[in-house]
Amino acid sequence: MALHPNTALEDKIAVVTGAGSGMGLATVRAFVREGARVYALDISRDNLDRELGAEDSVTTIALDIADSASVNEAFERINQDHGRLDILINAAGVNTPNRRATEWLDSINHRMMDAMKSGESFTPEFLTEIPDEDFDRVMKINVNGTFFTTRAAAPLLKAAGGGVVVNFASVAGLVALPMPAYYPASKTAVIGMTRSLAGELAPFNIRVNALAPAGINTALLTQSGDDHVQALLSMQPLKRLAEPEEIAETLVFLSSDAGTHYTGQILSPSGGAYLT
């Protein structure tokens, strides 16, 4: 249900990264429903064209957010089109750097679940198996990319007289979970960046918050199979995945006038996996 049907973000200019799928895509659709004009950024041109190509209120831009020059070019286009920006949603991110690493992690998750089912002990070892380039790639996308987009957006948010930034962190940045170190390291860095920028940008009426989700029903999660899903759900009091649309509604709230006293906050839609 819409917060205020077709009015919560009326005439707002928004950027959503990772817009071609999952939570980013759900957010674009929710923002359009609420009256925003959205620039949808994603590395996959095919996903953007297939999912958003017919949306009149959406401008799609294919880029790698880890490339600062491409990011700056995209935001210069927004500057030329509107001279301002109201909302930045940094939803782009990766769990693993490539298919090889995904398959490696999946094999460990399957072994972990088999051990749990049989009551055997299994201690995964990640640290010594991570190549430099894998660690670097995840950090470049999840951390550098968030920094690049926020840095490029800041002058446009200031020109608008204020605005909203919401970064995607993860429950893995809040609690200790057995996984390759690059992912929790990157998401913890996003949390630190969020809090720092909330303080710096508050005098300009720019609010900066982060979401730290756990299990969300996206292809990025479910592609690893049911064992991986069940491993995540075993750590949650609420035994279900959240839908991307649920997360999008939270972003509508944070980006609207209803969320104007939230800044520097880390909201965790995690089914109780993180309890404060």
From TrEMBL:
Q: Which InterPro entries match?
A: NAD(P)-bd_dom_sf, SDR_fam
Q: Name one GO molecular function term.
A: oxidoreductase activity
> SUPFAM superfamilies of this UniProt entry?
NAD(P)-binding Rossmann-fold domains
Q: Which CDD domains match?
A: SDR_c
Entry superkingdom: Bacteria
Q: Which residues form the signal peptide?
A: none
Keywords, alphabetical: Oxidoreductase
Pfam families recorded: adh_short
Of which family is this protein a member?
Belongs to the short-chain dehydrogenases/reductases (SDR) family.
Q: What name has this protein been given in UniProt?
A: Short chain dehydrogenase/reductase oxidoreductase
